[in-house]
Amino acid sequence: MLDLFQKLGHKTLGRFAALGRSTYMLFGALVNVPNFKKGTPLLIRQLYMVGSQSLLIIMVSGLFIGMVLALQGYTVLVGYGAEDSLGPLVALSLLRELGPVVTALLFAGRAGSALTAEIGLMKATEQLSSLEMMAIDPLKRIIAPRFWAGFISMPLLAVIFSAVAIIGAHLVGVDWLGVDTGSFWSIMQSQVSFQQDILNGIIKSFVFAIVVTWIALYKGYDCVPTSEGISKATTETVVHSSLAVLGFDFILTAVMFTS
Amino acid sequence: MNIVMESDLSQSIVEVKDVSFSRGDRSIYKNMSFSVPKGKITAIMGPSGIGKTTMLRLIGGQLKPDSGDILFEGGSIPNMSRKELYEARTKMSMLFQSGALFTDMSVFDNIAFPIREHTELSEDLIRLVVLMKLQAVGLRGAKDLMPSELSGGMARRAALARAIALDPELIMYDEPFAGQDPISMGVLVKLIKSLNEVLGLSSLIVTHDVNEVMSIADHVIIIADQGVIGCGTPDEMRNHESPLVQQFLKGLSDGPVPFHFPAQTYADELLGEKA
């Protein structure tokens, strides 16, 4: 019994220590005077690696999720003769929930794991140490541009995801199943509020961006620098950030959409 | 007293004073002291796992000693502010065992990297400096290759070129000869020696390749049992009376450092008796 408490205490302390180390890392990376001349090329490179490279998977997933959503929605709605409401159904579920959440999950798998593995390998091959010995702070040089790249690109990806998904829904709902295109768009327009739906979705996406990128960077930076340690860190990135995204999504939804 | 201090400073670039360091519960150094003379090649030798690399990280300020002091050009590394430490690090450089070249840039860009980061030189000038450094290590022809295309010995030479890119005053080598074939080993030995002479820098080599390093070192420090067990010129070390030093230098399999990892007696274990 005592043993159990001891283990529990040890685990809890470990968690808090990790939280402290990760906060320290993030602050070390972000709290400084930005150097635009040197920082901009680094940021652009990371925006390409983290953002542009994720475009394909985001767009393809968005298209299919939109098509499936329209198909499922139509079969239910048509039973009530309410298939004209397909537009707002699809748009609201995408803008409020699916867009930010699915983008964050895909981002964790596609870009988050890559960030962890890259930084973990840099640590294992002493590249981070060698930066330090060259009097260059790896937090500013390696961590900061990657964090900002994730922070900027994920909301953009979420917007693209939702847009492509709505096009997919239009393809299935209007072009295939024969919902009236006028009511598809006009009811969507009247039902979707910019502030309540679009803005809140984007805010969600910014929160997820911070969470996922932070976890990915920390796991890489703090990993045990062996092949086993890196593989464990990469897995943990995907698992922890997916869970964190779903948890935060619940909290944010509760705050934003209950009145 | 002051005069003695000053003459000490002019002679040694690094001074390690009464340093103790432990990792977790394991004590690595206990009250260790030694100094690294300026402008000379100093070798730190000792069996594997004795914490030689840790020593370099202590000097580089990546780790902090539990007690004691480390002076670099008279400034106390453990007590420096972050800014001062980074300032001091621009005057030292370290050659890592793996080379630690940045895998996402070419050899040329790797060597240009510290110059671009720390100076405002124009690209034309940087090109000249990089070519000079590459010429010094014989890799001018490999400037456009990526690190993954280099052999182990070439990667270490390229890393050496990067280490001298900013003309440091102290260069620390972490196991520069480990895993090298005889030819690239000979090349590296010659390079370290000639860089030391030509650039007038101080070299600190951590290694257990006794013969190679004894041939070029001016000063040898042997570490074992959490402290310095002998130091002096290579000749003095060869005639050192300590059996531990002799065992290490001659590579004898048994002696003060036992061949067997501590265990219960062989007979007991074979007969299945619990310790």
From TrEMBL, chain A:
Lineage top rank: taxon: Bacteria
Segments passing through the bilayer: 12-33, 54-81, 143-167, 198-217, 238-257
Recorded GO MF terms: phospholipid transporter activity
Keyword vocabulary terms for this entry: Cell inner membrane, Cell membrane, Membrane, Transmembrane, Transmembrane helix, Transport
InterPro entries tied to this protein: ABC_MlaE_roteobac, MlaE_Permease, Permease_MalE
Subcellular location: Cell inner membrane
Any one cellular-component term (Gene Ontology): ATP-binding cassette (ABC) transporter complex
Chief site of localization: membrane
Membrane topology, from the record: Multi-pass membrane protein
Pfam family for this entry, one: MlaE
Known partners and oligomeric status: The complex is composed of two ATP-binding proteins (MlaF), two transmembrane proteins (MlaE), two cytoplasmic solute-binding proteins (MlaB) and six periplasmic solute-binding proteins (MlaD).
Biological function: Part of the ABC transporter complex MlaFEDB, which is involved in a phospholipid transport pathway that maintains lipid asymmetry in the outer membrane by retrograde trafficking of phospholipids from the outer membrane to the inner membrane. Probably responsible for the translocation of the substrate across the membrane.
Protein family: Belongs to the MlaE permease family.
Entries under NCBIfam families matching the protein: MlaE family lipid ABC transporter permease subunit, perm_MlaE_1
Name under which the protein is recorded: Intermembrane phospholipid transport system permease protein MlaE
Organism expressing this protein natively: Pseudoalteromonas fuliginea
